[in-house]
Every structure is written in C-alpha cells, then in structure tokens.
Amino acid sequence: MSQVPRKLPQEEGDEEEEEEEEIVGLAGYADGAESFSDGDAESGGDEAFLDFNDPFSTEVKPRILLMGLRRSGKSSIQKVVFHKMSPNETLFLESTNKICREDVSNSSFVNFQIWDFPGQIDFFDPTFDYEMIFRGTGALIFVIDSQDDYMEALARLHLTVTRAYKVNPDINFEIFIHKVDGLSDDHKIETQRDIHQRANDDLADAGLEKIHLSFYLTSIYDHSIFEAFSKVVQKLIPQLPTLENLLNIFISNSGIEKAFLFDVVSKIYIATDSTPVDMQTYELCCDMIDVVIDISCIYGLKDDGTGTPYDKESMAIIKLNNTTVLYLKEVTKFLALVCFVREESFERKGLIDYNFHCFRKAIQEVFEVRMKVVRSRKHQSHVQKNKRPTPNGTPRMPL
C-alpha cells in the first residue's frame, strides 16, 4: 500500500506550519481519541421571535433566511429537517405570522441561525429594515410551491433577490421548488426548467445576469429536502475543501467506495468525497443513522437513564444483500462518518479503522484552527468595544 502525505491547508492568517503526516502507515494517533466539539453541546432548538436589536455576530453564525409565499412549506421544511417532525404532522402547523429566529447548533460545523419569514412580508413597508437583515445573511432560501400557480412567487422572488443583492452581493440564492412529491417525473423536470428559465430571464431583463440562482427539487416526504439543505449548508462552511480533501485521502487508502460526514441530528451531510452522490446511497445512510440513534436511545443509556445514546464508542455495521457493507463511526459528539465498502475490502477492517483514527485526528486539527480564529475575532471585538469612548467622552478603562 503506497503512502500518501497529507497536510492540512492553512487558515488565512494562521502562520503556524502543520507537520506532514501520512494517512497510511501514519503513527502517533491513539485509538482512544476523545470526542470533541466546538461550541455549545446543546441542540440549540429554542425558538424565539425576532428582536431586531438582538446582537448577532455574522462572522461566527451565518444566517439562513427562509422566504416564500404563504403556505409554500417553509415552516414544514424547518420542522422536518431540524426537529425530526413527521411530515404528516406538519399538516397541522399554523401559518407563520411573525418573523421567527432559531439557533441551529447541532454540530461544530452546522452552526447557524434560521430566520423563518411570513409570506406576507412587504419590502416597501418603512418599518421593514431589509438592509439590516440581508447584510448579515449567508444564504437566502426561497421556497416555491410547485403544485400552485407560481407566477406570483416568481415576481416575489425577483423582488427579494434584487433587494438582497444590492445590500449583500455575497448572499447564496437557493431556490427550493417544493412539494414535488405530487408531480410525475416528467412534470418535475418541466416545472424546474420553466421556473429556472423565467427567473433568470427576469434577472437578465433587469441587467442582473451575474446573480447566480441554484435550484433544487424538494419534498418533505423523501430525502430530497435533506440533500438540498446539505448543499446549502456546505456553501457556508469555509473548511469544506479541507474536509473533502481529507475524505478523498481516507477512501483512496482504505478501499472505500463512498463516504459522508453527517450531522447525526439533522442528517445533513456537511462533506463528502469527490465521487458523485447517488440519492439511493444517501437515503441508505440516513436510514442507518436513524436506526443507530433509535436503538441507542432504547438500549444505549444506563439503568438510571443517564448517559448519552451517541458517544465516542458508537459504531455500527450493516451488511446489505448486494455484497456492500455500511460502516458508521463516531467522529465528534455530533458528527458521524458513514462509509460504503465492498465486502472484500471490509476484510481489511483493521486498516480502515487505523486510517479512520488518522482522519478523526485531522478533523480535530481543523476544529482547533477554527476555534483559534473564533477566539481571535472575539478578542478583537472585545478590544474594539473597550476602546470606544463612554457617553461623557472619556475613554473606557481596559478590563
């Protein structure tokens, strides 16, 4: 087995040189590596109505906006993806009539805020400070009901995108063509083509051809909504190229066909290797995570009910009837690596496990670099805040 050197790319402003290691035949990584997390270990599921004066650091937590017309399915998407609500239960959700904000901190990388907007938002209302909202936004998800007349939705989409782009040209514009479960395959493709063409024609007529819109066919009744949200979140992860590179090195030296790095709570995959993603493969991985978490919640706790169902010892092997093995390993407190391996390759499980420990150590280094950047930004913000003069004009005393 050839040895492939691996060196983590340096974060901007980090001048420390990382030592080169080899992911096969690489020594020095203990089998009992502790799990780690960067941020709050709680799920962050508390929902609150929006306070426009609430301090918010856009550098630490990117902001994702959920927008669209009334009854387009925005709140249902949020509940199914981040609260594990059954799709059938969403039929009883009331329409959103206020702007709601929710912190999502399920893993060290899935760490952002979702703002759910009611469909009747009026951008021309003088009380609506759209500049403040769009200025701190990483991604804007606009949901279009594919089973309804979407002409009004396209008009609202154009208004929203043009207003947002003028304030923040760096926003990622994501279009969810939603509720496609009720359409035939041909109708899905035709609807996507028509919406894509009309939306881009409207931008071209306004002289805004450089705005890029990404389109996804989604439904809460299958895994397409998780796949689409995964793509959205990945664009907000600056470490994504590093993670993809690590996964490519890991699978190439372990005889693995496909690997995903999953957030076990939301089933969003934050990174995968460079091979194409097959929807059936992704669905099998999601089902495996559900099985592991459900069984662990029943049998993984101590007799007194304490402990956590998912920890550094969590591992699962499922052999399929097509000579393929599904292999799940805990990476961090909230992340799991799910791999597709051929049975003949899985006979070298020792090599896979050894390379996995090397991979987990490398991920830990990525976390540590990220935490250094976050701490540095917090320190700079604290220093600048203390340098600001008090109301009487005298400088603040250092803390």
From TrEMBL:
GO terms for molecular function: GDP binding; GTP binding; GTPase activity; GTPase binding; molecular adaptor activity; protein heterodimerization activity. CDD domains: RagC_like. Residues 11-23, 37-48 have a biased composition (Acidic residues). GO terms for biological process: cellular response to L-leucine; cellular response to leucine starvation; cellular response to starvation; negative regulation of autophagy; positive regulation of TORC1 signaling. Residues 1-48, 377-399 are annotated as: Disordered. It catalyses: GTP + H2O = GDP + phosphate + H(+). Keywords: Cytoplasm, GTP-binding, Hydrolase, Lysosome, Membrane, Nucleotide-binding, Nucleus. This is Ras-related GTP-binding protein. The gene is RRAGD.
